[in-house]
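Lab notebook, page 48
Experiment: co-folding of the full assembly
Goal: obtain a model of how the components sit together before planning crosslinking
Operator: M.T.
Materials (sequences as entered):
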Amino acid sequence: MIREYTTISEISGPLVVVQGVSDAAYGELVEIEVGGHTRYGQVLETSEGYAVVQVFEGTHGINLTDTKVRFLGKGLTFGVSPEILGRVFDGIGRPIDGSPAPVPEKELDITGSPINPTARDYPNEFIQTGVSAIDGMNTLVRGQKLPIFSGSGLPHPELAAQIARQARVRGTGEDFAVVFAAMGITFEEANFFLEDFRKRGTLDRTVVFLNLANDPAIERIATPRVALTAAEYLAFDLGMHVLVILTDMTNYCEALREISAARKEVPGRRGYPGYMYTDLATIYERAGRIKGKKGSVTQIPILTMPEDDRTHPVPDLTGYITEGQIFLSRDLHRRGIYPPIDVLQSLSRLMQKGIGKGKTREDHSGVANQLYAAYAKGKEVRELAVVLGESSISELDRKYMEFADRFEEEFIRQGQFENRTIEETLDIGWRLLSMLPRSELKRIKLEMIEKYMPKKAEE
Amino acid sequence: MAQVVRGKVARVAGPLVVAKEMQGVKMFEVVRVGSLGLFGEVIRIEGDRAYIQVYEETGGVRPGEEVVGTGELLSVELGPGLVKNIYDGIQRPLEVLWKMGGSFLVRGVEAPSLDRNAKWHFEPKVKIGDEVSEGDILGEVPETSTVIHKIMVPPGIRGKVVDIKSGDFTIEEVVAVIDTGKEKKEIKMYQKWPVRMGRPYRKKIAASEPMITGQRTIDTFFPIVKGGTAAVPGPFGSGKTVIQHQLARWSDADVVVYIGCGERGNEMTDVLIEFPELKDPRTGGPLMDRTVLIANTSNMPVAAREASVFTGIAIAEYFRDMGYNVALMADSTSRWAEAMREISGRLEEMPGEEGYPAYLASRISSFYERAGMIEALGSPERTGSVSVIGAVSPPGGDLSDPVVQATLREVRVFWSLDQQLAFARHFPAIHWLRSYSLYVDRVGEWAKEHVALDWVDNRHEAMRILQQESELQELVRLVGYDALSPHDQLLLETARSLREDFLQQDAFDDIDTYCPLEKQYHMLRNVLHFHHKALEALEAGVDVKDIIALPIREKISRMRFIPPDRLDEIKAIHDEIDAAFETLMKKGGEQV
Ligand SMILES: Nc1ncnc2c1ncn2[C@@H]1O[C@H](COP(=O)(O)OP(=O)(O)O)[C@@H](O)[C@H]1O
Ligand SMILES: [Mg+2]
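Observation: model returned without errors.
Model output:
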């Protein structure tokens, strides 16, 4: 039952209003024919007599007289099959790598459905990324959603690529896949990732969705959803461990804002719609593990914080939904430290259950806590020293300051291709902690200190 | 009987559906929408049009589809089977839905909130011929290892018991018959209650008994009472959820209702997996045996999120009426408020501050008003309480947020979470200078009687030291540490000890996670005792550096890892402090 109309009565930003429709379904997919080309759209509001449609490719060139609108009787779907691996699609899931569309096993609505909380399995398998600031202090686990909070010009592509390259669960050789979704980023940046996958020879285990900076902005609303539909299929139907990289969520949110403005909704903070939290949750919560299923969906969304402001609605709402964040610091970056991860502002909420005896090492939690406390103290002293001069600082405080410096140089700093084991990471931690008097190590149990504290050779 | 209302969908915009031809439908009536029969609730009526908030995703719904009234207001089912259960925001049993529909939530699925097949053992508490009225306990059902479910005469019923059963029954079987004079009322083990209405009680009474949480910063510094209200505002990552989980684990409530309102799925899974394994320190039974979970996570439909808070508190009141102390946690009330905002926006209501509806404050207040200690209706006479602890998640952690402000007008305890403390991993990140509890005096009186006479004095002194620390820190920023008097240097050290050795508490450490009052008392006493001895030593001319270097301080810093059943070791530190100073003074004397 195809219903075709030529009754557009209003065009506003990315939206068109179609008159005379009385049975459009909420969320229904729409085809719009403009000058021989077809665009896609989706019903945002339906009423007796009219429907409001958001047009993914934008409304330029649409007119009120001879644009045809066809309601397709279904939502936006993505056809999945094992053959999607190794393929490149556009932002709403059409192949753009020159090959014909894979023959779908089934069509899935990209909206997805919430995982029943009782069906979830708690993520607790340690993923070694080889990056000390992550593994040691903000451990990633399988099925987690852990975004990178970055800023323009900071090396988040390098870090995300390094994680994708090095991430592995120790002692397993299970099936993995990468789903990469680009939203409004430059060709260059997207290509950086693709080249990296290619060099590593994992392109055939990757599904790519590209909506680049010069692609239609509204399409970005669909991109993460198409990508996660693919990821869920790979994980929960095919049993793969899927790493999903979504970049850049800030561009996604801007598209959301554009639609909201066009609908003349009451704007929330900085013009973003009041429902942005809920909207983002329907993306980020599509990560996790499910009882009785082999695979998992791990998300690394990337976002750039406008003006490096973590209270901006995009990072703020994201942080309220995701299971922590990896926070990149412009200050560390200026000082030439890679990866410029500010561990204090970073967090992994799922760390506790992924570390410790049998997973990483029994001393992990204590070491991490102590490193946090000492680094926080050291940074505080360093600021004080700037004001007062080093001479008016107590001896103990001076040690803390030195600790902070060395922590940044030896623990945080590492090469883009340096892949540290968790043991190496923890051992660096101990080496640094041995600078402090033992009585300061209140966060670590005595047995752990006895067992792991390096004995000073010359003594 | 009113006839069933049948109308048609006229408009769909997100979670809001407008239906026409709905004459006769009631405000807050539950309706089924469209061919999938989605659950919704009428929230505005205009002529024949009903505005419906739909508790499920509305994708695919189109104008013309049927909308059918159920004749009932949004209600909860109250009876045996609540405890250990996990529900969504409108009390659908998630475990059952999982078995019926698979790992992902599907729409339009119906399942009774309480299991209709489970048999419960009913033990009568009244006899044939007894006169009973609302709230009277007709019988008891051992629901779990720790909760005895009281079957009460439902509100509005009074009369003579003409039949009473004993034995094993399902909740649909009649266990008692009451002759009200007009009719013979059959009583089953469950009743329904409209969630938006508070359950009746005889009267509210002043609450003064602390709700002990095993969290040092809370119990010693900013306590809450049974029947009290508290708010935990803070930016993301500051520890709101961990505090809520800690209270759900360790507080000495009889029943815990935990509402995951618009937050993470895994946080509910965490509770589901962990609570059956953890032991309740009071009863020895699994923690799950006193817990009811409501999970309407961030990605679940927003209208059901709005309802979840009411569903939770209605269940809490029901257990209160049995004479229990119930603790209710809502994480996060901000998401609840945002759900109201979203629906209000779709209704095109006049927006207030930050787009929230003008009735935001009154809704928040009507929620916290349902907390309190009460004398229940019926006999035997009993008191019960609902304590409410709400997390608040303001944008950017900004406390001027309307939800925070409206909440602070209602609650009597304010645990203010501080981002800087969280960055330095000082947890719980409850800021000691910005938080408050209006129950401090009442709990102090109680603690004097039940723990130790100097409880209040110790708290007072510790607070004073922390306040002085903050002033001294200002000074240090100007003149440097070395310019401080030895006396002030000592004070800074003691303050640091208070923060690091007492206030800080690791929720993930097997021992530190729960700290009984006795242990709290002795830990604090030792820190202060060290301070007093140090002051004496300073007076006697001992160098502050030597005091700070005393090895006994390391022992003080490790008190928290001593298990509560080895309290003697903590007590003994008091005398060891004396001994340490005696030696120090002697040495000092020799040197002079
Ligand atoms: N009492 C505590 N002990 C140890 N760690 C804590 C404590 N409170 C919070 N944390 C740490 O902080 C993280 C964030 O806490 P959470 O309660 O989830 O924050 P919020 O709910 O405010 O976003 C936790 O995952 C944990 O790592
Ligand atoms: Mg939280």
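Interpretation: The pocket of adenosine-5'-diphosphate (ligand 1) is lined by residues A 347, 349; B 234, 236-242, 427-428, 505-508 (CB under 6 Å).
Next step: discuss with group before ordering constructs.
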